[in-house]
Amino acid sequence: MFPELNNLLNTTPDRAEQGKLTLLCDAKTDGSFLVHHFLSFYLKANCKVCFVALIQSFSHYNIVGQKLGVNLTMARERGQLVFLEGLKSAVDVFFQPQEKPHPLQFLREANAGNLKPLFEFVREALKPVGSGEAGWTYPVLLVDDLSVLLSLGLGAVAVLDFIHYCRATVCWELKGNVVVLVHDSGDVEDEENDILLNGLSHQSHLILRAEGLATGFCRDVHGQLRILWRRPSQSTSQRDQSLTYQYKIQDRSVSFFAKGMSPAVL
Amino acid sequence: MAAVATCGGDAGSAGSAVATASKSNVTSFQRRGPRASGTNDSGPRLVSITGTRPSVRNGQLLVSTGLPALDQLLGGGLAVGTVLLIEEDKYNIYSSLLFKYFLAEGIVNGHTLLVASANEDPANILQELPAPLLDDNCKKEFDEDVYNRKTPESNIKMKIAWRYQLLPKMEQIGPVSSSRFGHYYDASKRIPQELIEASKWHGFFLPEKIPSTLKVEPCSLTHGYIKLLQFIQNIIYEEGFDGSNPQKKQKNILRIGIQNLGSPLWGDDICCTENGDSSHSLTKFLYVLRGLLRTSLSVCIITMPTHLIQNKAVIAHITNLSDIVVGLESFIGSERETNPLYKDYHGLIHIRQIPRLNNLVCDESDVKDLGFKLKRKLFTIEWVQDNYLRQERNIYPPGFSYLLKQKDSAWGEGSLQHSTFLMSFLAKATAFASRLVRHSEPLKQTGSGRICQAAGPRLWHDGRRQEAPGLLGIPP
Fold this sequence. Notes:
The structure holds 2 protein chains of 2 kinds.
Chain A: H1 3-9, E1 21-27, H2 32-44, E2 48-53, H3 58-68, H4 72-77, E3 81-85, H5 86-95, H6 116-126, E4 139-144, H7 146-151, H8 156-173, E5 177-184, H9 191-203, E6 206-211, E7 223-229, E8 241-249, E9 254-257
Helix pairs in contact in A: 2-3, 6-8, 8-9
Chain B: H1 3-11, H2 34-37, E1 52-54, E2 61-63, H3 68-73, E3 78-79, E4 83-87, H4 94-109, E5 112-117, H5 122-127, E6 130-132, H6 135-148, E7 185-190, H7 193-198, E8 201-205, H8 223-238, E9 254-258, H9 281-294, E10 298-304, H10 312-321, E11 324-330, E12 347-353, E13 370-375, E14 378-383, H11 386-393, H12 400-408, H13 417-433
Parallel strand pairs in B: 4-10, 4-11, 5-8, 5-9, 9-10
Antiparallel strand pairs in B: 1-2, 2-3, 6-7, 11-12, 12-13, 13-14
Subunit structure (chain B): Component of the elongator complex which consists of ELP1, ELP2, ELP3, ELP4, ELP5 and ELP6.
Subcellular location (chain B): Cytoplasm; Nucleus
Family (chain B): Belongs to the ELP4 family.
């Protein structure tokens, strides 16, 4: 969790909003620092987190999480964190036939499959256990990242359906939050990715967009972050609030500053 | 990801050999190396594997790619458990050279090799590996090389953009006499036969594998890819690289080399058509391969003819599914071969992606314009002198082209007339100097016609150079 980002978003772990879909997107840069931020944020907020990590291994998030002050191993042991490690599960599902449907069952299917088994997994992970549960505040689903699902053969519609089901269950029924990361391919013609990104942009309450600088690589400013607050259900006559900051990623934190106000330049 | 300790943790079994984490709460973030192992915890000593070293940033295990210059650009080396994707140059000359350096490094360090190819027998590939340079011989050659190499350009002050004088030059690394990490190779000699015989290697030659009855149901992966994945998984399990085999505990690195992945010889049509039947076969392969590598002590190099892939979106997917992506662009056959600007170099090397593993930051190098040359049997990577590429790309220092535009509009507009005159004088000088640079199509002439309207700055997209009129007419 980056304290500066919390200030920009005007949230703290104690009083975060519920029932929201947050879209993280990155263009020409790596936006994974936002995923680490939200993971540690919700773990500190004492939420029950289901993390679908499709692109990196558990120890990667664990090591970065330790720098940010959360221990994923402990969280997993006490049941606060349900971690689906996509890479390991893909190896399992690919080499051994499974009896019951596996969350990543679509890897074995020749045609474009659907994500129903994955949704069942998420629902199972986040469903509130009866009394006697150790009182987590609200459930959170975190997906890193959805573009991998597109590159593995699923259609944009299947992924949008999955997010729709997750939102209905997690956001509306269980009053939790959903955070997803999508890569923006920029000027490369990727229709499916554009459909997915546009569809999610219209559904989300908060969009964090990490962009690389237009002038290229810079050692002191790693990119630009655009924050957009939306109200998807209400009328669009009210203007959405938008802010832009530039950032520099350091070893344990990320520092944000207004455009052009990097300490290296001043 | 520090692969060694995580295999013990993730597999859940009774630990792998190297990081026998007897304590259940041993964090996977452990510094490798004998000095740290005995100090804070009473756990077993970590045995260091030959040819590896811990990263200075986070203690992750690194292996050398076989090219010390490339190791330096990648932040010290290739992390164990990752994939290095090389985008081939047009005639597959330098990418196969990098492939061979990687394998030769494995032989010199005593690592196990797994060579997969669809067009060349792995035994032949191993015969053609370059010979390692012994320390005393290559030190002599290096001294000669440094003496003969003229660098007058470095002494001339750059006239146009003074700020760029302060940027660092690429350091030439000399041979380290007692290094166990990163060796130099003589590309003109073959590796001694006894080294190959002493090494342990497995070959996968696609035409030789008999099509067997598939135990898995067809899942849209090409037949060749399925067999290769099964082969790799078999080797990893049988030889204990992932620590799950109770009989075999391995203290070595498996170096996997896959040549020309994605070419039609593998049965994939991704280089032939834009939306083929098996359009996701390659990405699924890369995904499962990544899963195999992350949970074992192995490292993989893949060369891929991405310049043939028709669907550009697929290249973006492939880049996201690989860890390190290096693109090679050779000057052979292009007009730059005869361009005096590039007379010292054989091509350009683009570091397109460096992973952030176990970290928020990554070791990105500051220099982005890198050229390589294969000179005196050594493969070196250098920063191409900045002003030549600037001229080619038609990018002027900020404010310059703006003033040119002012010149072309009617006199009297803007209050910068006097400085415009001075700038136009300089602009004329530059335009004269860049007369050698052909524009692909003549731009509309406005104003007096004495100065051609220069193209605006072309920005980078995706780290690749975008077509600029200053380029000598190379189609992308």
